């Protein structure tokens, strides 16, 4: 019985450590201009000094609301068709079929 409660304590401790490290990394990697309500340095101090509470405050009050764009995609001109994949290109499919037949004959 004591073993299971000790194991639960270790798991809770590891979960809190993981949350704290995530919060700390998130504050450190968020660009200064996207941080809300306080300067980034203040948020770092809060998260370091108050691991659980600071991380929760960061998630609710300091973290950017809008998800950061990770992929930059060039905008298409009005009326320009969407790019096709190779399996939508009839020329590509003909060439692929020709190569596959040529490979079988050898």
TrEMBL record:
Topology in the lipid bilayer is annotated as: Multi-pass membrane protein
Q: From the Swiss-Prot or TrEMBL record, state where the protein is found.
A: Cell membrane
The reply to whether Cell membrane figures as a keyword in the UniProt entry is yes
The record's listing under InterPro entries reads: CLS_N
Compositional bias (Basic and acidic residues) at which positions? 77-106
Recorded hits in Pfam families, A to Z, give: PLDc_N
Q: Please identify the protein, giving its name as recorded.
A: Cardiolipin synthase N-terminal domain-containing protein
Tell me the organism. Answer: Nonomuraea glycinis
